[in-house]
């Protein structure tokens, strides 16, 4: 369960994160480039240290050799040129101001309150304490001092606190303290001035912590050391404290000295990072080898310097060529992926590709099947190494089941996307085979036809049928490729035919094997799974039939209605039908609270408050989602259950509540379903069919005109309520849906033949009492058959 929740959460994050698609694009492009051009990282050496040269080797052209010692020296110089970074904490004074001002303001206010309390207590007791503190007074004073120390941030002696109390915590004292602190901190206080002065010649980089602004400081003597700053307190404060008495002045000096903190600190980590960056930015120093210069003489032992020259020559030649090819391949692949993505996402009906989940799925499929040729080539060579099987390297590609990728994509993201996928994969695979045109055509045509034969796959055997068809197509294609490459082929083409046939069958088998895994990994639901869910023998549907037969019948009818309507508007009929079957499974838990399941019994809602009734109705959505999770019905079904009522209003119970309590006392939000509104056309169809089918049961005389009026009215009402805003149903679609619903409902409520009865009088009476859509109440007989003895005494079955 935790794994399932984690997977759902991961997919949700992917769907809601914007940069994911660009990261996936970069990832796919990088993988493709590395696989297409492996020779950019290949390094070969013809000689090792101490080998004897077989021939003279001269430099064919000018090239460079790195001067390692010179490069290292330049890097050390770059590191030394980096100035030491110090952080300037400009907000320290604001913090100290808040602490000092807050502490004195607190004590100044609480002191006045305490004095008033003390006077009141003295008057009440008649005892004159004359400055002597009782035990209670001492505890109170101690508590006040602790609060003052905590707020101020430094410890306060009992004597100093007594002085402050006598001064009634005069606000002049914090003003003087802050004035001295501001003057000293404005100059700058450093914790270790001796370490700072080591950079006096070069200067330092002073960085403001909060704004990250920087400047270079050369005059480092302007900053105070911590001891120096404390000594400056009395000097700076002397002109400010002329009006204070000696005791208070000393108190101000003491508090200020202890409040002073360094606001300029060494940032070692930033300094080291800048030095490392400066060293890394230094380009290697090379010295030039001229064309024609002798690199190695025949018969000489290879020295370390000669080996270095040879190595650099080969590396530069290969890397220059590899980098150019890699850059060109990178541009081509990136352009192809962007263009295909742009076309697919802008094409009408391909909205599903705008989700990050679909992009992730396609990226994974591209990477997996792009690595398949390498794996297949290794396997073929390993199998045929010690066997008499003759397989030409020119037609080795025929045995690679690349079509499985397009077939799989078609099952999840439709045929149009599979064509684009096959084009991208075929182009990249052709580059792996030296850009051969016949390879591209083989993989592309095979992939497109494989996807075409998988379009309407609703049975497992379709995989095998498609694989066999694809195998014979591959035989035809590989024959054309062999003739194109070698002219008139010989008997060796038989092995090519075998490979081609087996690759087609293998593509079908691979597709059948990976589809269930991809369904679980990405939360997709294929038509095959939907067909399995559409089986009315599913346990949850059988339970619905037994425990809530009215809901079961309603769900089956809704499924039929949405299936027909989906076919009319080009939606997925099987998905719509399955959503219709399961949309009300949440009613299983409380079936008798829903009108369709109340068989000749009282309505339980008659004894409930309207608000409670609405909660019961709303709860079937949440309970249905839980049942769908329990039975693993898939995300599409869970979404349909959650959204099939949207945010619609439970009008009956809302009107009932308004009638009982008044409109002002009733909140409409409490009588709405939680939503969200339908986000796909299939769920929108389920919402419309659910309402229309339920309402059609209430028609007294369901003739075609009444059914048409009901359908039109309900669809307009749902559309006007904004419930279809997010499901891409157009007005043209709504007209087609209404026609489809009318056709099915007219078939359900069609008039039946009235059979002749025994008594004309009884006939008249019953025909007067029943409605047109009810069957006659007498026993029906087949025309032309004689009445059997005792038939009039037969009781109705089931009663």
TrEMBL record:
Keywords: Hydrolase, Membrane, Receptor, Transmembrane, Transmembrane helix
Organism this protein belongs to: Desulfococcus multivorans DSM 2059
Gene3D superfamilies the record matches: Hypothetical protein af1432
Domain HD/PDEase per the UniProt entry, residue ranges: 547-704
SMART domains hit by this protein: HDc
Region (Disordered): 115-137, 757-799
Family matches, as Pfam families: 7TM-7TMR_HD, 7TMR-HDED, HD
Composition bias, Basic and acidic residues: 757-775, 785-799
TM region(s), chain numbering: 20-37, 323-343, 358-380, 411-433, 439-454, 466-485, 497-518
InterPro entries in UniProt: HD/PDEase_dom (IPR003607), HD_domain (IPR006674), HDIG_dom (IPR006675), Metal-dep_PHydrolase_7TM_extra (IPR011624), Metal-dep_PHydrolase_7TM_intra (IPR011621), PgpH_phosphodiesterase (IPR052722)
Residue ranges with Acidic residues bias: 115-125
Protein name: 7TM receptor with intracellular metal dependent phosphohydrolase
């Amino acid at each position: 369960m935790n794994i399932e929740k984690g997977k759902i959460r991961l997919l949700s994050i992917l769907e809601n994160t914007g940069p994911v698609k660009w990261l996936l694009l970069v990832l796919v492009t990088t993988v493709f480039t590395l696989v297409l051009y492996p020779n950019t990282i290949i390094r070969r050496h013809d000689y090792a240290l101490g080998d004897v040269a077989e021939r003279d080797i001269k430099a064919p052209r000018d090239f460079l050799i790195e001067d390692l010692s010179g490069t290292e020296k330049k890097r050390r110089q770059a590191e030394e040129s980096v100035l030491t970074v110090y952080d300037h904490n400009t907000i320290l004074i604001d913090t100290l101001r808040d602490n000092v001002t807050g502490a004195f303001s607190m004590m100044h206010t609480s002191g006045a309150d305490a004095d008033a309390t003390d006077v009141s207590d003295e008057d009440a007791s008649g005892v004159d304490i004359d400055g002597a503190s009782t035990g209670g007074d001492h505890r109170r004073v101690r508590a006040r001092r602790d609060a003052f120390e905590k707020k101020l941030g430094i410890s306060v002696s009992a004597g100093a606190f007594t002085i402050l109390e006598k001064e009634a915590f005069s606000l002049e004292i914090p003003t003087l303290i802050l004035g001295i602190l501001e003057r000293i901190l404005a100059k700058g206080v450093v914790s270790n001035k001796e370490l700072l002065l080591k950079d006096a010649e070069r200067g330092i980089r002073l960085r403001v912590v909060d704004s990250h602004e920087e400047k270079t400081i050369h005059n480092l003597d302007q900053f105070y050391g911590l001891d120096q700053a404390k000594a400056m307190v009395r000097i700076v404060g002397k002109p400010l404290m002329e009006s204070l008495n000696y005791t208070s002045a000393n108190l101000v000096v003491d508090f200020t000295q202890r409040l002073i903190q360094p606001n300029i600190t060494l940032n070692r980590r930033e300094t080291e990072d800048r030095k490392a960056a400066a060293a890394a930015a230094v380009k290697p120093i090379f010295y030039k080898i001229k064309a024609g210069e002798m690199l190695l003489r025949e018969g000489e032992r290879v020295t370390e310097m000669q080996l270095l020259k040879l190595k650099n020559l080969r590396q530069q030649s290969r890397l220059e060529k590899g980098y150019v090819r890699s850059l060109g391949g990178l541009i081509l692949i990136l352009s192809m992926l962007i263009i295909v993505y742009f076309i697919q996402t802008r094409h009408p009906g391909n909205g599903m590709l705008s989700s990050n989940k679909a992009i992730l799925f396609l990226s994974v499929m591209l990477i997996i099947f792009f690595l398949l040729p390498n794996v297949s080539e290794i396997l073929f060579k390993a199998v045929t190494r010690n066997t008499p099987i003759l397989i030409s390297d020119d037609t080795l590609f025929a045995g690679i089941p690349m079509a499985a990728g397009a077939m799989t994509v078609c099952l999840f993201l439709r045929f149009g996307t599979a064509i684009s996928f096959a084009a991208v994969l075929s182009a990249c695979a052709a580059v792996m085979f030296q850009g051969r045109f016949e390879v591209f055509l083989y993989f592309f045509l095979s992939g497109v036809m494989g996807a075409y034969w998988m379009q309407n796959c609703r049975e497992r055997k379709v995989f095998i049928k498609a694989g066999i068809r694809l195998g014979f197509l591959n035989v035809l294609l590989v024959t054309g490729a062999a003739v194109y490459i070698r002219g008139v082929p010989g008997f060796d083409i038989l092995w090519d035919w075998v490979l081609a046939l087996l690759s087609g069958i293998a593509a079908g088998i691979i597709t059948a094997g990976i589809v269930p895994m991809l369904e679980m990994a990405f939360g997709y639901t294929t038509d095959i799974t939907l067909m399995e869910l559409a089986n009315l023998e599913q346990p949850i549907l059988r339970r619905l039939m037994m425990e809530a037969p009215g809901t079961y019948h309603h769900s089956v009818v809704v499924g039929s209605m949405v299936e027909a309507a989906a076919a009319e508007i080009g939606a997925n009929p099987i998905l719509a039908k399955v959503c219709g079957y399961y949309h009300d499974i949440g009613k299983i838990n409380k079936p008798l609270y829903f009108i369709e399941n109340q068989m000749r019994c009282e309505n339980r809602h008659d004894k409930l408050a309207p608000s409670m009734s609405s909660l019961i109705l709303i709860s079937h959505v949440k309970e249905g989602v839980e049942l769908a999770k329990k039975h693993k019905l898939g995300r599409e079904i869970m979404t349909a259950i959650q959204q099939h009522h949207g945010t619609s209003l439970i009008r009956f119970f809302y009107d009932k509540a308004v009638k009982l309590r008044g409109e002002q006392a009733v909140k409409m939000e409490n009588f709405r379903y939680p939503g969200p509104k339908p986000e796909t056309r299939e769920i929108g169809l389920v919402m419309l069919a659910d309402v229309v089918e339920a309402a059609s049961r209430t028609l007294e005389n369901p003739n075609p005109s009444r059914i048409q009026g009901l359908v039109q009215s309900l669809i307009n009402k749902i559309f006007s309520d904004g419930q279809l805003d997010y499901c891409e149903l157009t007005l043209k679609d709504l007209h087609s849906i209404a026609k489809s619903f009318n056709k099915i409902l007219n078939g359900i409520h069609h008039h039946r033949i009235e059979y002749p009865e025994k008594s004309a009088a009884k006939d008249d009476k019953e025909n007067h009492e029943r409605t047109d859509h009810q069957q006659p109440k007498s026993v029906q007989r087949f025309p032309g058959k004689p009445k059997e003895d005792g038939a009039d005494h037969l009781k109705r079955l089931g009663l």
